[in-house]
Every structure is written in C-alpha cells, then in structure tokens.
Amino acid sequence: MDENELEQVYNELIMEHSMNSYNKKKLAGVPDFCEIGHNPNCGDEITLEIKMNGNVIEDLAFSGHGCAISQASTSIMIDTLKGKTVEEAKEIISTFIGMIKRETKSEEELRKLEDAIAFRNVANMPARVKCALLAWHTLEDILNGKK
Amino acid sequence: MNLKDDFPILKNREISYLDSGATAQKPKEVIEALENFYENFNANPHRGAYSLSMEATEMYEDTRTKIARFINSKHREEIIFSKNASESLNLLAYSYGLENLKEGDEICISIMEHHSNLVPWQKVAAKTGAKLVYLYMNDNFEIPEEEWKTKITENTKIVGITHVSNVLGTINSVEEIIKYAHKKGAITIVDSSQSIPHMRIDVQALDTDFLVFSGHKMMAPLGIGVLYGKRELLNEMTPFLMGGDMIEYVYEQNTTFAPLPNKFEAGTQNVEGVIGLGAAIDYIEKIGYDKIQELEKEVVDYAIQELSKLDYLDLYLTKSLEHHSSVISFNIKGVHPHDVASILDSEGVCVRSGNHCAQPLLRSIGIDSTCRASFYLYNTKEDVDKLVAGLNKSYEMFKKYLKK
To answer: Do A67 and B345 touch (CB under 8 A)?
Structure first.
C-alpha cells in the first residue's frame, strides 16, 4: 500500500465519522433490536441498536470500540440506511460487501451506497476488510433474522 | 555488527521487521539446511532399513541431542518434538493435567499467559473440578513476590508461568517461583517461547519440571515446537496422540507404548522442522547469546529512549529495565492500534496490533489492544528511527480529529 492509497482510506469523511460520530449514542426508549458485532482477532466490538417502524428502519445508533475504519464504517452505514425499508437496506448491504470484496464494479450500483462509497479503497487493504465489514455483517444478520 | 545480511528476506524486502515476537526471520543457514535435507537426505526416520532412512534418522535424533545440550537437559529423551508451544502445552494439559488433578486442586498461572498456556488449563479445571488461580501484576507490569507467595499453596498442583510476557516484555522471576512451587509440592511449567530466542535456558539450573517453546520464534521454520520434561515425570504420563511409531506391541484390543521420546511422537514428524531447528541453534551459538543480548540491548534501549520522548504515546513497560526483554507495547492516545499498524505498514514498518493472544492480560490493564514492536538480533537503530517517523506520521494524521 502506498501513501496515496493510505490517504484515500483515511479520508476526511472517514476520519470525522470515526473520531466524532453523532451516531455513537444510545437510542431513546427500548430498541427493537440490539446486537453485538465482534471481531475476536482484533477485539473490535460494536453494539447496534435499531428502531423499526413497520418495514422501515426508523433509527439506528451504535456504541463500542474499534479502529477508525470499523467505527466510521458503522457510523456511515447508519447514515446510509436510516429511513430505508428492510429490502432496500439488504440490497445496499450486499452492494457494500460486494464493493469491499471487489465483486461489485458497476458505478451505477455503487452510487446507491451514498457516503459509504468512501470505503471503496479499503478493498486495497486486505488486513482491514473485516474492520470495514463488521457493522454491515452484523446488521445483515439481524435483518435476515439470524440473530 | 549488522546481521541483516544473514537474512535473505531482509535484503529482498524493504522493511523494518519489528514483529519477531510473532515469528522471527530465518537466516540463510536455516533455509539452506532445509534445502540440503530434501536434496540429499529425505526419508522417513525410524521406518526404513536402507541407509538413506538411517541417515535421516540420525539427523533427526542428532538434533534432539543438540537441543538437549542447548538447554542442558540431563537426558536426550527428555526432549519431545511437537508442532509448536501450544501443542506442547496441550500435551501437558491432557497427559498430565487431566490424569492427575482432582476437585480441590489448584492450577496457578499468571495473568500474563498467552492463551496457549491458559485455555487448556480452563479445560482441565472444568473437567477435573480443579480451580484456576491467577497471579496478577502490580502497576509496574510485574508479578510481585507477595502475589506468588500467597497464591501458590499446598493445594496448588501445577504452576504455569511464561518466562517473558509476549505483550509487555516483562521477565518473570521464574527461578524463584519454581523453587517456591516445589516447596509447596506443585509441578512447574515454563513457557519459554519469548525467552529462548534471546537468552540462554538451562533447564537443570531452573529445575523446572516442564518447559515448552516453539522453534519459529528462534529462527527455525514454522511448525516445530519442543516440550522438555523431567524423565521420571514423562515416563509416568500417558501418551497424548496415538498412532504410528509411538507403540511397542499393538494387539486387536490393546497396545503397549514405546519408551521415551517416541511415546509422545505419534505419526510422521516434521523432520524438516527439526533439521531447521538444529540449524537455528547452530546460528544462535555461532553469534552467541552474549552478542545477541548486546545487539538487542543497544537497539531496545534506544527504542525505549526515543519512544519515551513521544508525549502522545502510552507505553506499557516495566520501569525496572533489567526485568525487560525485547518487546515493547504502546498506543497513541485515542488512536486505535490497527490504524497505527496500517499507517506504519505504509512506511514499511511491520508491527503487530491487537490483543496478542492475551485477552485477560489486556483486560487487566484496562485496554483492548496495543501496538507491539518486538526486536531481535537483526534490528538496528535505523529500524527504531523508522518506527518513530511512522508514529509521528500516524499522530499527525489523527491529531486534528482527537477529542481534546
């Protein structure tokens, strides 16, 4: 990884979200889902809280600790998926995972990721892929009813 | 003296390799020994009546003798080959722990243990009803004498202690702990994985009952480990893995086992690993532990001096440097170690980040993870300068986002 790639990953948006996220809080009231995502090898751990309104993800928040990439990825995921239906969210999650694993290449599809497209260069840092995917896999499991 | 030239990878890759605590790089002598074995001696030891197999057997068994001499064990059959330190410790947990412990007994280990000297004992405790007791550290990242003098009691049957912490570099007072454990009637297990690359181990002087280490941290190939045990204890133990070459007579319903050391070496062994370990020992003896320590001390002292100047850094290090080996754990305040490791990587500096297979230790310090720079005989002050430059770069990148 060279200098340029490093700066593309640690960009302004990711840094801001990782260090000072407004999504890092507790939801008011009892959330409909509250799940922990964990990367045992690195110790990153996040707790996702979700409030549903019918089929719509009305609100999300997170707490926990981890590296800049996992924290920012969680925060930006929340911005991207808030207000989406379960079906829309699942599609965006699958596009995001595809982007990080270098399977999704279509620019048109990637545009649906909104700010989360900022993580596309994490695909060049294999050691950090699981950091970027932690929150997305956790939410995917919740929406698929696995947890 | 700069030994980098002895290590092909350090010439082929432009890196400052500061992760020898995870695995050491290999000198060309070790790499050539493997090549020589496969080009001229490869056969299955103990199996063939033809001369090639006899020669392979001789190389394999000569290395056992070499290791016995290297750690000063009384008998060569006290050296058992395994896959790694973890397997050696599992062997002890299964073949000694499960067989000898009962309810009311205690296993005493330190909070500094690598998961490999911790998780197996949880299993032994759960299966036998024995209790797992921990030795904790003081604020200086050391286990104080009063801790082991109160925790090791007549109920203690096994004391397991790492010689050097893989996270903190703290050198534990293993000699005193072993003496005290014996006084209370316990047997002792020393994990010397992080010490044997850097300092001479004398099992008779230590008088430990068991000692384990992996080869790859002392420049041998990956996948070879050693268990040392006192002969009378190993003789009493049941085998761990069953299979070929560890038997005497096999009948349809029962088996008698081979004597030491074969009893504990089931199946075809990692012969190239053993040969490579022999070559690594030759290399260590060629340089000499005194010289290794001199080289390391100069670099590690310089690293501590330079890292201590960085206000933004937390160092997890004993103040008594005579109790410190060559591992330094640190964090940039407010920045996650994985990010720091990635930024250091972009500068060609290889450090480990994470919990280093020691979650209970990190939890006891109140942190989740650290960056860890671990040094070995090939590192130079230049490597330290690169580390410091990389850390400055990391801090600059994060500075404006850090909460004041």
So the answer is: no
